[in-house]
Write a structure and sequence with these properties.
Number of helices: 16
CATH architecture of the largest domain: 3-Layer(aba) Sandwich
Number of strands: 5
Structural class: alpha/beta
Radius of gyration: 24 Å
Strand content: 5-15%
Largest sheet: 5 strands, parallel
Helix content: 55-70%
CATH topology of the largest domain: Rossmann fold
Distance between the termini: 51 Å
CATH class of the largest domain: Alpha Beta
Order of helices and strands: HHEHHEHEHEHEHHHHHHHHH
Length: 329
Amino acid sequence: MDTVWADMLEKQSVVGKMIMNSIKKSRISHAYLFHGDKGTGKYELALLFAMSIFCKERTTIDPCHQCTDCRRIKSGNHPDLHIIIPDGASIKKEQILHLQKEFTYTGLESNKKVYIISQAEKMTDNASNRLLKFLEEPSQQTTAILLTENSHAMLSTIRSRCQMIALKPLNPKQLEQSLQREGLTEANARLMTQITNNLTEAIEKSKDNWFAQSRKLVVQLVEMLQHNSDEVPIFVHTQWMPHFKERTQLQEGLDLLLLWFRDIVHYHLDEPSAIVFANHHNKLEEAAMYWSMKHTTDNLQYIMDAKRKLEQNVHPQLVLEQLTLQIQR
């Protein structure tokens, strides 16, 4: 479905109004810095903004989505819109030099030029300094849109030359409703809003076999901790570790385990509407009978400690073995 400004107002009301006013009054700045957490819609907002700048057919604030300009932007091949993403781990000086070279040419469709730099905090020092020179000599018809999750990692001189636009985290309820409109069940939508606040990522995860298997392994581990604790070390070695191979995957597995024990807390407190693993009501009831409220909150602390140890590069298998011993009563 084509994004319009009404959608953006629903997600980012303050930001949406600011940019819409700029477009209406033809007071578009030469440089913007959109900063906010992953999934807040920075890239979507940048593309909609670019489309509104280039669309010659729009009669309202919204681009028409049908003209040549709109279609080219959506397909990623508009000659006067340049998008820079990291080349490997960083954005390099050569990428900014190439951008500058492209901008020396007259616009093919009009005199307007827009460039979007995604993950702008990943610019090398040389790239940042080169971009700074570019920003210091703004063209009347050029609009720069920089996107970042961490504006503090960027040169203060770059920040000072941009209009700073802060995007707020998405409202989980809005995300849950959007996911249900995309066909997810209420239970799955609720789980996904706890894992990510990015709509696209949530939809992808809901269809991902690896993630589905992760959920099963978490439920199996919890049941084993209750009923077959002697077999837990073998389970960790033969099933858990081969599935959660990377540290980031292991962190995700621990996030799911954390949600399970939070659900036990909600069960103890008789807060059914807050339960995420709603499809496992009987198993949660059983777990709540097995782990007292105090033991459950202790387990939450153990899981948080395990997540910290993973960040400190402690051996993953040791972390899991210690955690499962702590959780066993």
